[in-house]
Amino acid sequence: MKGKNVIYSSLFAIGLLPFAIFAQQDPGSREDGGLTNMEEIEDFDKKNIGLRMGISFNTILGTELVNPRPFFSYAGGFYYQKQLLRGRPYWLYTEASLRFAGSNFANYEMSSDYTRITQLYLDVPLLLKINLSGSRRDDKGRNILLGPQVGHLLRSAIYLGEYRVPKNHLVWWQRWENLDFAPFDLNAVAAYEISRPRHAFMITARYGLININRGLYFDDVTPATGKGGTIRNASIDFSFLF
Known about the structure:
Blueprint: H1 2-24, H2 37-45, E1 48-61, E2 68-69, E3 71-83, E4 90-105, E5 114-131, E6 141-160, E7 165-166, E8 184-195, E9 200-208, E10 232-241
Antiparallel strand pairs: 1-3, 1-10, 2-4, 3-4, 4-5, 5-6, 6-7, 6-8, 8-9, 9-10
């Protein structure tokens, strides 16, 4: 009987040996460097919300307005991103941001020449974000973002002369009159991002897909408007994300 007990005890100890070895390993990792099921679930459920702040170089293209020049402005807002597929380097990126758009114009011969047009947009992009570094867990490394963006025009104004005085400046603050632009703009967006654990740097290019001219015309502004030409916004942003 004692011999049988020794045999049974030895077999039981051998049976527990794999569990003892597994218990000594790090439960949050695997020897092959992959993710455990728990890590994949936690990463997939993780939400990413932050702040984007940057500068923007804008211009207005098309056939309606002449002699456009770059216009420097600011842009910023809140972003949200989420991994689309567990263990895949694909993310959905969106944001709600304010952006000053528009253009300067090299028209300085007369005090009635338009020399600047400004626009204030509320932008909401919907972009596919692809991690080029092959990360399965997060967006760290190099990313590209592609997709459309809808912008809602909140304010617009035209400025005249060398000193860029607002048109009808005597009543400008009492009665704001937006220009004859479409209330919504649609842009194609392409961006390149370098993401780090605590921040990211992003370069974003936008181009207007629609003509936002809705009958822009002034009888006392030069060069002549009201030609029925096209007006499209374009911009390049340099931003930090926190």
